[in-house]
Amino acid sequence: MFTLRASPEEARIPGYAASMYICAAGAVVELLSEPLYCVSQYFQLYRARMLVEAAAVLLRCAASYVLAIHFQLGLLAFAWAQVVYGATLIVGYTVYLTFSFPGFSVSVLVPFQAGRRVDGRLLRFALAYTWQSLQKVVLTEGDKIVLWRIESLVSQGVYSVVFNLGSLAARFVFQPVEEVCFTAFARLAGAAAAGTDAVFTAHRILRLTLRLMLLIGLLFVTFGPNYSRALIWLLYTTKYSETAAPTVLAWYCLFVLLMAINGITEAFVHSVAGGAQLRRLNIELLACGAAYMAASLLCVRTLGGGTTGLVWANCVNMLLRIALSYRFIDAHFKRSGVAVGFPASGVLPHAVVLAAFATCFAATAVSERLLYSDAPKWLVAHCAVGACCGLVALAVVFLYEKSLYTEFRTVISRDHEHQHQ
Question: What is the CA radius of gyration of the chain?
């Protein structure tokens, strides 16, 4: 699609079409590693993921550098680096699982083999999750499709810079937590079916995790908007600091907060929902996708938001998905015997913590207006104000949210006791 519908400006880029085909092949190679990844997650081999994905990322970076700098391949360098990434995942997980489980063979993961019947129930679940994944692509990647169709390459470059910076939080902070929570919630859901008090444990873990992610997201919202221009200037100099990139990054910090909350709520929903519930959720997500695309066009064209408008539309999308997940979570706990359901007030941090974040936001906003300049001494002064405010915010969180750590330790220790009983 990207090659057939490419604009004349894109078609003139050397290696554009070939890069699209190679990237597609790289996506297939990466997809082949998913069964191996699922096995490692099931057996809680978190060290495997840390080692394998770290090696894959490093090799992808190395391949990009060598092919782009030394071989001058341009776009093709990044396309081939994606293939290297997927191949490293397959080899890495295969080697780790082979050493962890003597006798392990990749062939056992092949779904269709002679003499093996296909589990109809498993196939229906796989189809439901596949359909849900397709919808998730629209919900998470729809902004890039809109940007590709109606914005210039300059705007696409600005959004790419912001997205790559913002996605660091999602990749290195939020995604590992979400995946661990998904595994924990799925296991607790199975224990709850056996008549244990796992429902209340899941309720408590969900509440504590959401509060933790909310605190992390508030750090982005508090300090990100007032330091986005400085960060863009330090990383990319005036090439992007004098474009819309700082403004887009400032709004993206709000999106990071919503993304942190949505990741945990959807991890819970997907880990405990049954087949019929997933099908109903898929229909609701379709409505969210339609609203998201409409919001994108409205914010970008009608309101003239441009690249910033796409971030607004993403925020609307996240709010809708959080609302859907919260409705499911509240109903699930009420059905499971938790009389109060899942009140949102239990997730909010202490009022003093919220006041401290608001004060730090105001102080850094004033600092940016009065002190910020491309001159090094004023930039250092502005960053010093942010560092002081950050220390104050962390101190307040430590004083008023100390119980968060204590409760986490209590819940985890009790959960380990139940597992060994």
Answer: 23
Confidence of residue 370 (pLDDT cuts 50, 70, 90): confident
Q: In 3-state terms, what secondary structure has residue 228?
A: helix
Rounding to the nearest 10 degrees, give the CA dihedral for residues 225, 174, 349, 389: -40
Distances (CA, A) of 298 to 122, 143, 206, 313, 318: 41, 12, 35, 8, 16
Q: How far apart are the first and last CA of the chain?
A: 55
Q: Which two tokens stand for residue 166?
A: 């913002």
Q: Which of 108-112, 288-292, 307-311 has the lowest mean pLDDT?
A: 108-112
d(CA 217, CA 222): 9
- Looking at residue 322, its pLDDT comes to 93
Instruction: Tell me the pLDDT tens digit for each residue of 327-359.
Output: 998 888 888 777 677 888 888 999 999 999 999
Supply the DSSP string of 77-92, one letter for each residue: HHHHHHHHHHHHHHHH
321 contacts 255 by C-beta, under 8 angstroms:
no
Closest CA to 333 of 206, 419, 190, 212: 206
Q: Yes or no: say if 143 and 179 are a contact pair by the CB < 8 Å rule.
A: no
CB under 8 Å to 269, separation ≥6 — which residues? 281, 325, 328, 329
pLDDT tens-place string over residues 225-263: 999 988 888 887 777 777 888 888 999 999 999 999 999
Is residue 11 within 8 Å of residue 19, measured between CB atoms?
no
- C-alpha count within 13 angstroms, C-beta hemisphere, residue 382: 24
